[in-house]
Amino acid sequence: MFSPEGPSLRELAVQALSSVEHGYDLLAPKFDHTPFRTPAPVLDAVASTLRRIGPFDDGLDLCCGTGAGAEALTKVCRRSVTGVDFSAGMLAIARERVKSDEPRVSWVRGDARALPFGADFDLVVSFGAFGHFLPRELPGLFGQVHSVLRPGGCFAFPVLAPPRPTSPAYWMLSGFDAVMKVRNAVWRPPFVMYYRDFQLGFVQRELQRIGFDIDLYALPEFGHRGDGSPRVRMVAARRRP
Questions:
Q1: Which residues contact 222 (CB under 8 A, 6 or more apart)?
Q2: CB neighbours (10 Å) of residue 26?
Q3: Do the strands 105-109 and 77-85 form a parallel or antiparallel pair, or are they unpaired?
Q4: What is the chain's percent helix, strand, coil content, to nearest 5?
Q5: What is the spatial distance between Cα 152 and Cα 239, in angstroms, rounded to a whole number?
Q6: 154, 131, 159, 155: which is closest to 218 by C-alpha?
Q7: DSSP codes of every residue in 89-123
Q8: Which is nearest to 123 in space by CA: 84, 64, 82, 94?
């Protein structure tokens, strides 16, 4: 499915009936051949914007998966890059992809809801992971990010403009979320993966409440919608001194 190197429909079904952690362990060898991997243009656009608002010394890729985001951070951070993920399978692929080229990069297995770090970073990024957290979990997640950033440090992530209700994408994503919610109501363990529960207004309010100041940067590489608003933004939340 997706490509000759990608997972089959049966493999995706087995993954979807597993826990999030085990599902990604199973998917890891073929993950980079699926649409779930953050596209290179998004990684490059975020890295370019971060270079403009830096400098940064030590970066953390939160829920790093197979390491594409951490690899992008090597173009931004001057001293070190760390990737953290709770899937051993995804981390194994990340180590294999990046180990020979970037000795500054390290990998840590850990849960984003209980990060095993002190205030060791001046940059934390995350790409495409927020759908794996329920809305009630996000304040705790943001609190963890706040705790590992040095004062003045930056938490950055891209956000796509939500599709309009008249677009096919809106109904496709809504349908996917509905199917996942039914699945989680009747099957255990749950597999949390929702596309429409991450609402920028709620996220901004929670980040500000926890102690971040927020800037939004349009990523011009992706153009604008009909009303002039950018299709993709980067959120840059600074930990207050």
A1: 41, 45, 230, 231, 232
A2: 18
A3: parallel
A4: 45, 25, 35
A5: 5
A6: 159
A7: HHHHHHHHHHTTT-TTEEEEE--TTS-S--S-EEE
A8: 82
**What CA dihedral angle connects 46, 27, 109 and 150, to 10 degrees?**
10
Cα–Cα distance measured from residue 140 to residue 113, given in angstroms and rounded to the nearest whole number: 7
C-beta of residue 214 within 8 angstroms of C-beta of residue 154: no
Task: Name 107's bridge partners.
Answer: 83
Other C-beta atoms lying within 10 Å of the C-beta of residue 134: 11
At position 170, the amino acid (one-letter code) is Y
Pairing state of beta strands 77-85 and 56-62?
A: parallel
Q: Which helix (H) or strand (E) holds 25?
A: helix 20-27
DSSP 28-69: GGGGGGSTTSPPHHHHHHHHHHHHHH--EEEEEEET-TTSHH
- Tell me the one-letter amino acid at 191: F
Residues 53/238, Cβ–Cβ less than 8 Å: no
User: Which pair of tokens denotes residue 64?
Assistant: 């790093």
5, two tokens: 């190197």
Question: For the chain, which domains are there?
Answer: 39-239 (3.40.50.150)
Per-residue pLDDT of the chain (241 residues; tens, 9 = 90+): 566 666 677 777 666 667 777 777 777 677 767 777 789 999 999 999 999 999 999 999 999 999 999 999 999 999 999 999 999 999 999 988 876 555 689 999 999 999 999 999 999 999 988 988 888 999 999 999 999 999 999 999 999 988 777 888 777 877 877 887 888 788 788 877 777 778 899 999 999 999 999 999 999 999 998 888 999 999 999 999 8
